């Protein structure tokens, strides 16, 4: 008899639970149910919405602590994931000890946050074959893709194959990187005149052949074939986000032209870094973003000179994109923790 009663009670509870179903996310509890509602509309749970953040270059020539604090700030905002656009280490060395130390510091900073972090490789991360070997040992191929909630994320490698600095230029660069650790403001001030001269030459079309080679965006045939196949296999993605380090569409890359053509009429957004200066343009009717910095020295001065995150929400229609300056992301004490950010 007791057993029958228990079985009957269990059956009743199961039936009640099945009838009740999941509770709505929003449940008003009004003192007068007939009164007007003091809100414009009920908030709706949107399980298909995607909210992620993008972070810009930490290097070359990192201002100490800016990136490390930036990932903590991003973590506090709780995006579903954080993805960078390359240049995490100063690099351009084949010394195994130096590379282990540099990557160890970055991995420690990223390891302290709770949200997922996706790596994108930059020229400072893949400055030579030794650095590529380290990257592959840690993270596999620098180009890859994934889908999330029906959206495709296509990650490209603009350093395929890597190209090293000349020994003379590398020595100058490493000396500056060392100075940035102890006197970031003074070192950056010294760089202003040199950068102004470089930008003036660029504006007239004058380029140093060695620097032009370093600045190029390079894609192997293997990578191009992989990218074309990936796009074909995910032709029905609700949206496609293409991320890379160098803005290849500005660098006369025939290989990227093929990838861009394969994007065709699908909905997509392209995001890059490298130039250390934020820029937005519309190309083929789509948004193309060049991220500003997250600690790297700015290459030019103006409204795009800023340390920031991009907060991207994909819900219904095109993504919503908002830029968040690191100096404006404050904790509960009203502090950003960013004394060197711009």
UniProtKB/TrEMBL annotation:
All copies of domain Calcineurin-like phosphoesterase, residue ranges: 51-278
Signal sequence bounds: 1-20
Region (Disordered): 21-41
Entry keywords, A to Z: Signal
Alphabetized Pfam families for the sequence: Metallophos
GO MF: hydrolase activity
UniProt-listed InterPro entries: Calcineurin-like_PHP, Metallo-depent_PP-like, STPP_CPPED1
SUPFAM superfamilies assigned: Metallo-dependent phosphatases
Transmembrane segments: none
Domain of life: Bacteria
PANTHER family: METALLOPHOSPHOESTERASE, CALCINEURIN SUPERFAMILY, SERINE_THREONINE-PROTEIN PHOSPHATASE CPPED1
Name this protein carries in UniProt: Calcineurin-like phosphoesterase superfamily domain protein
Organism (species): Edaphosphingomonas haloaromaticamans
């Amino acid at each position: 008899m007791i057993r029958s009663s228990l079985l009957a009670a269990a059956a009743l509870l199961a039936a009640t639970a099945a009838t009740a179903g999941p509770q709505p996310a929003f449940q008003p509890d009004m003192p007068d149910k007939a009164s007007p509602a003091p809100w414009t509309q009920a908030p709706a749970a949107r399980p298909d919405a995607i909210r992620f953040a993008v972070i810009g270059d930490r290097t070359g020539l990192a201002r100490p602590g800016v990136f490390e604090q930036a990932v903590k700030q991003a973590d506090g905002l709780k995006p579903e994931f954080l993805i960078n656009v390359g240049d995490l280490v100063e690099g351009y060395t084949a010394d195994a000890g130096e590379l282990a130390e540099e990557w160890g510091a970055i991995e420690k900073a990223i390891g302290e946050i709770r949200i997922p972090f996706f790596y994108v490789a930059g020229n400072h991360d893949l400055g030579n074959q030794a650095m590529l070997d380290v990257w592959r040992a840690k993270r596999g191929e620098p180009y890859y893709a994934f889908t999330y909630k029906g959206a495709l994320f296509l990650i490209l490698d603009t350093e395929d194959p890597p190209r090293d600095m000349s020994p003379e230029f590398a020595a100058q660069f490493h000396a500056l990187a060392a100075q940035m650790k102890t006197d970031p403001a003074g070192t950056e001030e010294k760089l202003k005149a040199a950068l102004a001269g470089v930008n003036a030459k660029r504006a007239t079309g004058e380029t140093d052949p060695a620097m032009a080679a370093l600045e190029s965006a390079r894609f192997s045939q293997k990578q191009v074939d992989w990218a074309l196949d990936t796009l074909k296999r995910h032709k029905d993605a609700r949206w496609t986000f293409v991320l890379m380090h160098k803005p290849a569409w500005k660098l006369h890359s025939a290989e990227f032209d093929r990838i861009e053509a394969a994007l065709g009429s699908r909905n997509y957004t392209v995001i890059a870094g490298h130039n250390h200066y934020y820029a937005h343009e519309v190309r083929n009717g789509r948004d193309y973003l060049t991220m500003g910095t997250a600690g790297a020295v700015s290459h030019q001065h103006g409204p795009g000179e800023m340390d920031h995150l991009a907060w991207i929400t994909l819900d219904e229609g095109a993504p919503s994109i908002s830029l968040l300056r690191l100096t404006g992301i404050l904790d509960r004490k009203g502090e950003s923790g960013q004394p060197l950010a711009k």
